[in-house]
Amino acid sequence: MPVDQEYIYSLLRKYKDRTATEAEKEELVSWYRQRAERDSVFPEDEHVVAESMRVRLHHEITRPQHDRRRQWLAAASILLIIGVSVGLYLRPTAGVDPGDITPGSHQAMLVLVDGTKISLTEAANGNIASQENIQITKSGDGQLIYTLAPNRQGTATASGYNTIETPKGGQYQVVLPDGSKIWLNAYSSLRLPLNFSEGAERRVELKGEAYFEVSHQPTRPFTVVSGQHAVQVLGTHFNVKAYADEPDIKTSLLEGKVRVTAGTHSVTLAPGQQSRLAEGNITVAEIDTREAVAWKEGYFMFDDERLEDIMRSVARWYDVEVVFDNDALKEETFGAVTTRFTRISTLLEIMEQTGDVQFRVEGKTIHISSKQPV
After folding, report:
1. pLDDT, greater one: 344 or 13
2. Which residue in 209, 277, 220, 270 sits closest to 243, CA to CA?
3. Helix, strand or coil for residue 74?
4. What pLDDT does residue 160 have?
5. pLDDT tens column, 73-95
6. Are strands 117-119 and 126-131 parallel, antiparallel or unpaired?
7. Do residues 336 and 348 make contact, with C-beta atoms less than 8 angstroms apart?
8. Alpha carbon distances (Å) from 13 to 3, 25, 28, 47, 72
9. Which one has a higher pLDDT value, 234 or 198?
10. Which own/partner pairs from 200-208 qualify as long-range (CB within 8 Å, at least 24 positions apart)?
11. How far apart, in Å, are the Cα atoms of 284 and each of 66, 212, 222, 331?
12. Is 13 a residue whose pLDDT tops 70?
């Protein structure tokens, strides 16, 4: 029996608005599972496997070409809202080798104030360094924890900075002595002061991208510095993207309030807003914050973004080089939602299906060209 496209989309809209009844949710899941079973791709879990369902939605529901990508992205966003665990049941297209390139993982290097380098990838769990009044511990889940040493609470003897660096294909989380948490994205570095005792300035320096959950301390502002760009907060959740190869610096606010300063320019952000520093000017726009922090949640999430911008993020995470056979392809726009923890072929397949480009993987290089007419 042919699927009623409008009815399926009505169910998706209800999912997105959180108004779907349990019966309607079950109906949508049943619709998906029937098609998955037909192709012998049948998840065992009662909850729909997010990426498999996303691909099925994209293939099964046909809409006019001009709005197909946006509707597909909306459907994928719904699955993110539901919070379904990610599993992949995808069949790569002929142009993409499924055995090509694996995703990034928890990798980082800790550079101590004296220049000593400690590979957090290779170091055993437990205490890995002690400095003045600071103990540094590696946990078993990609997390580095700074704590004030016992009986040294409130002392301010430590000085200098440590640096945590993630390579391409790496990410790491840091917990500071004040309880603040920082997630560091691929190819980024974070410079941290050793002195986090009471009265000391809470100031870190970022190159690359990081998500911050800052502990609220009214008398001690927390400042994130990226070159001439600074974000000052008291306690809030926000994301800063400040890669050297990007044309701008973006600060996205999820909770609380932050003040963004660059030179003589300054703006205050409210939740749901993003500042953009480009060519010395700061602009502010309303955004879907899920896109800004999707990387931290384990997803790629792009909404009508330029292909060149998308591939910068892809290259950092998979540690690959990207070559455009035609510079005009850099301006192509795409929507894509997929897990970051799968081979690169999954993302490339999605983009091939939704656009007019094709990808060729040669070693650690991705070649992008125009799709050949059938």
Report:
1. 344
2. 209
3. helix
4. 84
5. 444 444 433 332 222 222 333 34
6. unpaired
7. no
8. 16, 11, 11, 19, 12
9. 234
10. 200/156, 202/176, 202/178, 205/161, 206/240, 206/242, 207/242, 207/243, 207/244, 208/166, 208/184, 208/241, 208/242, 208/243
11. 28, 19, 21, 23
12. no
* Confidence at residue 374, expressed as pLDDT on a 0 to 100 scale: 55
Closest CA to 365 of 101, 148, 60, 169: 101
Assigned architecture for domain 105-291: Sandwich (2.60)
Q: Counting every residue, how long is the chain?
A: 374
- Determine contact, residues 233/214, Cβ cutoff 8 Å: yes
User: What topology does CATH give the domain 298-370?
Assistant: Phage tail protein beta-alpha-beta fold (3.55.50)
Contact 268, 215 (CB under 8 A): no
Q: Is the dihedral of CA 275, 277, 278, 282 positive or negative?
A: positive
CA-CA-CA-CA torsion sign (297, 299, 300, 302): negative
The string of pLDDT tens digits covering residues 104-160 is 999 999 999 999 999 999 999 999 998 877 889 999 778 999 988 765 544 445 578
Judge residue 88's burial from the number of C-beta atoms within 10 Å of its C-beta, 0-12 exposed, 13-18 middle, 19 or more buried: middle
Tell which residue, 301, 306, 319, has the closest CA to residue 51: 301
* 3-class secondary structure, 227: coil
Task: Give the H/E segment covering residue 252.
Answer: strand 249-255
Ordered by start, the domain boundaries in the chain are: 5-82, 105-291, 298-370
**∠ CA 293-296-302, rounded to 5°:** 50
Nearest residue to 52 via CA among 35, 69, 68:
35
Whole-number percent of the chain with pLDDT over 90: 46
Q: Using DSSP, how many helices (H) and how many strands (E) does the chain show?
A: 7, 24
Judged on CB neighbours under 10 Å (0-12, 13-18, 19+), 271 is middle
Question: Mean per-residue pLDDT for 181-196?
Answer: 92
pTM for this structure? Answer: 0.75
Max avg pLDDT among 222-231, 337-346, 365-374 = 222-231
* Residue 72 DSSP SS3: helix
